[in-house]
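Technical annex, item 7. During the second reporting period the consortium partners agreed on a shared format for inverse folding records so that results from different sites could be compared directly. Each record opens with the tokenized structure and is followed by the designed sequence. A conforming record, contributed by the partner at site C, is shown below for reference.
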């Protein structure tokens, strides 16, 4: 009896759709802060290496490739799509974080909110002062005053998660609250300071659409078939108005309903954040990092990064200004008001986190592109300054956080020893 013919081997599907359980696992991994930060660093390095490789021409070609219809000014380069559209999802998640903090987080109680809010504000004002002092005399200095004001929330939380695993949870809450307020300040700066021409008709349409979105939330209309197209049209209208389109992301995040009805397991804002976090961390921010971190450092540019006042002012604003502003704001608030530092924290912890806030990467690069979009050479130097300040801040912060981490490990060990002796 002849054996049945062997079945042919199934073809290898390289990019086959993952199984449901695998998709959930990938999404869960992308929600972790360490993975998001690692992806941001990796793709930023890809952009930096690509821009300084023999294929740098291809890098510029990809960035400048225009895609989209001319209608409503949607004929954007791929770099602009990354900055205007993809980062809108990043800021939408940030808007939801801010709403959560306002409703049930640190910002829900005025007494608890004072210290991180004042720290965030000082952490924006002092870098501006440092930037203006260092860049004084440069003919284009005024354009980039806002570049060192922002903190990269994803990067900062990832560094804290890796370097400070044993630090008090109150420190993460402090950093998260501070970074959320910082992001809100950055959005206000972008909307006010970097909006030159306003299309009044488009702006009115955008406002009306936002009102419609808000009413849909209040009327408990949760259908994706309505809310997703409505949110997309809001983005288009904001973009067409001349205001930076990422403002639409924050606005939608703040308008999403954050309270749970009796028949709901979770509120819409929480569900949207759960869905979008992997997409934002795993695709939107990494693609923006590739498109924006491509600083050409060949030839005279490398030397200019350490001699030109623009990159030096940005780096100093991030590394010195953010640390001094955040720590000084927290200390003066606790010293002269009724606001108090959490019992779980020490001022050495705040100093370490204050240094970490100098990592301005994502939002600082975005503001740099808006500030120096008409001066490509200065834009390249400004981005170099962001990378300098962010790298220096992250390295020093890791050292300080590691020291505080060892302190708490030792403290827990001493407490365990004392408990054993008492028994």
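Designed sequence (site C submission):
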């Amino acid at each position: 009896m002849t054996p049945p013919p062997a079945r042919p081997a199934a073809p290898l599907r390289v990019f086959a759709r993952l199984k449901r359980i695998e998709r959930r696992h990938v999404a869960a991994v992308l929600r972790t802060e360490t993975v998001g930060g690692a992806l941001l660093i990796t793709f930023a390095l890809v952009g930096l290496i690509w821009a300084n490789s023999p294929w740098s021409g291809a890098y510029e070609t990809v960035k400048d490739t225009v895609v989209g219809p001319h209608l409503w000014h949607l004929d954007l380069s791929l770099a602009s799509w990354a900055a205007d559209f993809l980062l809108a999802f990043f800021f939408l998640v940030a808007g939801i974080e801010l709403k959560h903090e306002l409703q049930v987080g640190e910002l829900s109680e005025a007494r608890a909110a004072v210290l991180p809010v004042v720290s965030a504000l000082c952490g924006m004002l002092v870098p501006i002062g440092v930037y203006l002092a260092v860049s004084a005399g440069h003919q284009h200095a005024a354009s980039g005053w806002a570049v060192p004001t922002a903190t990269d929330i994803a990067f900062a939380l990832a560094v804290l998660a890796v370097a400070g695993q044993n630090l008090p949870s109150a420190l993460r809450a402090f950093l998260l609250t501070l970074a959320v307020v910082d992001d809100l300040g950055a959005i206000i700066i972008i909307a006010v300071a970097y909006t030159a021409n306003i299309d009044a008709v488009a702006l009115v349409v955008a406002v009306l659409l936002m009102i419609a979105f808000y009413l849909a939330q209040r009327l408990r209309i949760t259908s994706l078939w309505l809310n997703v197209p409505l949110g997309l049209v809001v983005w288009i209208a904001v973009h067409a108005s001349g205001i930076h389109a990422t403002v639409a992301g924050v606005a939608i995040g703040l308008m999403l309903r954050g309270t749970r009805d009796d028949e709901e397991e979770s509120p819409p804002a929480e569900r949207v954040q759960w869905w979008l976090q992997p997409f934002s961390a795993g695709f939107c921010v990494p693609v923006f990092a590739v498109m924006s971190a491509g600083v050409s450092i060949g030839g005279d540019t490398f030397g200019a990064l350490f001699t030109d006042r623009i990159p030096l002012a940005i780096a100093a604003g991030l590394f010195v200004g953010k640390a001094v502003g955040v720590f000084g704001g927290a200390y003066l608030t606790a010293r002269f008001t009724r606001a108090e530092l959490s019992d779980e924290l020490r001022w050495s912890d705040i100093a370490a986190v204050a240094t970490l806030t100098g990592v301005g990467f994502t939002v600082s690069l975005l503001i740099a592109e808006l500030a120096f979009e008409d001066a490509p050479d200065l834009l390249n130097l400004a981005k170099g300054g962001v990378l300098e300040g962010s790298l220096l801040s992250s390295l020093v912060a890791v050292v300080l956080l590691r020291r505080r981490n060892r302190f708490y490990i030792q403290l827990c060990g001493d407490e365990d020893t004392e408990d054993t002796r008492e028994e």
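Residues 9-19, 25-30 have pLDDT under 50 and may be disordered. The chain has 16 helices and two strands. All partners now use this format for quarterly exchanges.
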